[in-house]
Every structure is written in structure tokens, then in C-alpha cells.
Here is the input.
Amino acid sequence: MENRQQHTVIRFIIIFGVMMLGFAAVIGQILFIQTKERKKWLAIADKQEKVRKDIPPMRGNIFDASGRLLAGSLPRYELIMDLRVPALHRGGDTLFLHNLDDIANGLADIFQDKSADEYRRVLMREFKQKNGRFKLQPGAVSYTQMKRVKQIPLFSKGQYTSGLIVSPRHVRVKPFGSLASRTIGGIYGEKGEGINGLEKQYDRLLHGKPGVSEKTHINGHTEYITVTEPEDGYDLITTIDANLQDIAESQLRQKLTEKGAEWGCVVLMEVKTGEVKAICNLGKNDDGTYFEKKNYAVERVEPGSTFKTVSLMAALDDGKVTLQDSFLTCSAGWTYNGIKHTDAHKYDGYLTVQQALAASSNIVLAKIVTESYDKKAKNFVNRLDKMGIREPVPCEIPGAQDPRIDVPQDAVTLSKMAYGYSVELSPLQTLMFYNAIANDGKMIAPFFVKRVCKEGRTVQNFSAKTINSSICKESTLRDIRKALHDVVWDNEHGTAAVNPWGQKKAQSDLVHIAGKTGTAQLFEGGRYHNRLHRMSFVGYFPEEDPQYTCICVIQRPQGIYDAGMDCGSTVRNIAIKTMAFAGTRKAADMALPYDSIDKPRIKGGLHKSIRKAAKGSGVKVAKADSEWAKVNEHMQAISVSVTPTKVPNVIGMGARDAVYAIELTGMMAQIHGKGKVASQSLEPGSAIIKNGTIYLELR
Here is the structure.
């Protein structure tokens, strides 16, 4: 009995000893790992972290005020073939060689950029080199193309048999092309970060939050499993109206081309709301065409004579002058402190203050300001402060510059400030000041984004910020409006009225406009050049009930130019089309009698759409007995045949209808340009090409 107990104790001691040795070994190993092998295991841990990767979110869309897409992200796919996959090389490469013809024929049919023989040669070459990242297409492909590629027999077997790797990505597109593209902005880099415009300003909201995927092994294969789903970006609803934007851009482009100017900008703003409905910034290319180059509308420049309204408002509000006061002008100029001030419009004699603003007299405005504020320049600038014109303007466009209006240190600078030199404002800030005149003296900041939305639900609203509830006295405002009326409607003095041959500048019987012209010499190489100018016109309409304010600025026009004739007529044309399209007046009421005007060019397309559009504009179009039609110069609808077996004649149609008609045949269309279809790559009436593409040139 004692021996048995003794053996039990010995066994217990042995077991306990072994356990203690095991614990000691574990503790020793832990200490060893934490000290001697610490760096090794930390490095391994770091590598394990790298098996996680981001899942990019879908960037939010940017819409116009009516919900039309201005910038959006579309799914695109990169197609890679890993020609090292073991399955392709088994049994003497039989799987690859057996499917080579199907792959080559399929790719040639889908992309039509190479023949099947060319694809076959390239695939065979890359297969022999065991290329692990052979791109089936150099760029990203559409969803439809990707699905068709995956239906090729070998590729339908999956990635680990065929080697096909499909990598999704998002491509930013602008369906309206260049319209407001500089204001909308762009993105760059793999992460798709905003580079300028609204894309940059609202990048944090648009970008969204990336998800996370984790690398894991399943059935001998490596897969990435989603750990955290990405959160797509928010959408922006802008104040821009795509139709008004198109109107403004086409008018500006036409004028810039006519004048051969360096650049130009137009901004159209709603008076009461502060919403910017259109903004165009066009710079000249080397080939003479124009595109959205820089945000000229938010870069400060010397405004020239549009600043005279600011100077006159200050003097009127301080009781220094009245509209009926007269000042002597001289065609030879007026010398003040050794500096000669001259007028572009030569007068000898007296002009009232009201006539002087209409005639844009540098001499009279310089006299008013120097006589009122000489040795009291600070008082002049204080008055500008009370207007709010020196305030930095909140602006959603990155890079927007604040105004520069400093207290002049000498009388000469003060005299030049009177007519818009030695001060700098951006066109947008000048527009804001004139909008306040139209808005009963209330100055509000222009803005570009109305709402932020998520999945169709509004999460944040924006509205105009008030800069100044009243920029001047009511009596001053009435006087300024009278003077701005005369700029356009005083045929004797008004710089935006009529030219010497009786041609109207900013005048229109359809929309009454009030505003101010401006012309400034360009300062380059340390001096002003009397043959290089920046011209402008800013005004509001309709004058009797202002709804919109518009500014047009054109830099370095060539040949003969005139701010009232060029910029004034551009604003006038925009005003007429804007009121017909989006104002309170019907298009039919804005039109001249039918028989007294040249008939408009009407795009072809669906017959019922043509007649509906024509009726809304007060134009009569004779009927045709077909679903598709064109309109000739006699306003007659000519039948167009669209069948699934023949190439349709889409010349004369708009882009949307032309693409629709072509897609009905099973082909695809690629368009270039704007306007109506001027030419098509396949002859009308010829047999269709299955899955082929027709190239359309629009002008």
C-alpha cells in the first residue's frame, strides 16, 4: 500500500515537473519572440496588413438645376489576360491552342480595331512569353463590351482556367462636353481627386468613402473578400441651367471668333436668388478655336468704365453731385496734376452727370471724384466699403480672387480710380454690384450649388449670402437706374445705344436692357497700350422687372471693336433667348411676325417631336406621312426611312435623334461636334454592318 502511494507521488512529481518545464519553454519562447525575433514578426505583421486593399467608391454626380447630368462616373473595365495560368499550359498547351481562334475572332468582332489574324499573332506571341498582364485592350471598355468578352468560350470558364482578369474602374464623363466644364472642374489620379472647379471645392463630398477588401485563400485560390462596403459620394445639384449655358456659350464663342479675341467670359445670374444660371470661360487655342481654358470670370482685372457707376454712386450718395449738374468736357482732354485724361467719345462743351455716364466720359467722372474727394481719398474708399464692393466674395470656385481697391496715396491715382484704373475686380464681382442695382439695392453673393443629395434625398440646401442689405440710398438707386437706362437708350450719348450707321447695340424691342459699357487699356510690359483693350458690358433685364443680370468681357479683340456693339449685342442676344426660354415671357410672344423673319433651321428627327418643338416656337411645319422626317427651307417635313436593314439618312438630325435612329438598326454611333449632323461615315441606304459603328460629324 505504501509502495503504491509512493509511486503515485513520484508520478505526480514527474508530471508536474514536465508541465513546469513546458510552461517555462512557452514563456521562454514568448520572451525570445518579443526580444530577439521582434523585428522579424513585426515585419511579417506589416506584410499581412498589406493584403487589405481599398474598394473605390462611386464618385457623386453633378447635375444642372433641372437634374440633367453635367458630370458623372460610369463603370468601365480593364481587361487583362494572365497567360501564365497553369491550366492554359497543360497537355502541350492544348486548352489555349484549342480556343485561340475563338478568342481572336471574338475580340476582332467586339472591338473592330484589329483583324482576327492580328489578334491571333499577338496572343500567340504573348503566350509564348508567358505575359502575366497582357491587355486585351489598351484602354478601359464599356460594360456591354466586357460582358461580350466574358461570353467567349474560354473566358466563360472563369479566371483560374482562362486567365481573364476584369478590373472595374470609374470613368468621369461630361455628357454636355465643354459646357461650363471649367466651372464644373475635373479630376485626376487613380483616387479621382478634384483638380479644379466644383470637383475640387466639393471633393470631400463627391469622393465618398472607400471600402475595404481582404485577401484570403478559398479552395486553393486567392480571393479578395469585402470587409467594408464603400460609401458612394454625394450628388451636387447646381444652379446652372444647361440650356441657358448653351445659349451663353454659343453667343460668346461666336463673338470671340468674329473678333479674334484672346479670351472672353459670360456670366448670367438670377437677380433675386443669386443663382448663376450660366458661366462661360473661353480661351483661344493655337488653331483659332476656343475652349474652356481658365476661370477668367473669377480672376480680377481692371474693370475700366463699368467702375464709373460705382464712382458716381459714391458721389451721389454723399450728396456731392446731382444728375443735373454739368461739367465741361474737351476733345483735347483735361490735364490734372500733370496727367491728361481723355474721352474716347469726343465732346466739346458741357455734359450733365446723367449724360456723362451714358457717354462714358472719363473727364467728367475724374472731375466729379477729384472735386469731391481730393485730399479726402479715405472718405471715397469708406463709401465703397459701405456699398460692400470691397468685401471678399464667398465663391465656390477655387482660385477666385478678392477685389483690390486700396486707398489712393495721391490725387492722380484717385482720378484714375474714378473710371476703373488702379482698382481690380473680377467680372463676377462686377456682376454682383450691378445685380444689387437690379435687386433694389440688396447685394447678394452669386453661388453655384443649390443642394447636396444622397440617393435622391436632399441632405443640405444652399442659398445666396447677403453681402449688404442696402448699397445706397433709395434716391441714389433711382438716379443710377436712370443713368444706366440712358447708356442703352439715349441714341445721342449712350455707348450701348446705336452706332453712327443706326445699328442697334444693346437695344432690343423684345427685351429692354439697362447697363454699362467698359473699355480698359491693357497694362503690359510696365505700361498701358492704347491699342490693346479689354471690353465689357454688364446689364440687367428686363429693365422694368429685372430677372437676370449678365456680364460679357472680351480680352484683346482684333480689328475694329466697340464694347457696346460687341459685348452689348452679345448680352442682348443672350437676353432675348433667355427670356424666350426661361423667363416670364412665352417664346411666341418674343418672336417677330412669322413672315418678317428668316425661318429657323430645324433639326430632323422624330416627326412628332419636330412639330411639337416648332409649334412651341410659333413656327408652322407641314406634315409628313412617316415617323421620321427632316424639315426643308420651306418648312415642309420630308419623310425619312428608318429600317433595321438599311443605313438611315441622319444628315440634318440632332445628335439624340440621329443616335436613336442608328441604334434601331443594331449599329452604334459615335458623334463629334455640336449642332446638326453634317456628314455620316456610311452611305444612307447601304446595308448595315452588324455591330458596326457610324461616325457622325455635327456642325
Remarks:
- The two ends are 115 Å apart (CA to CA).
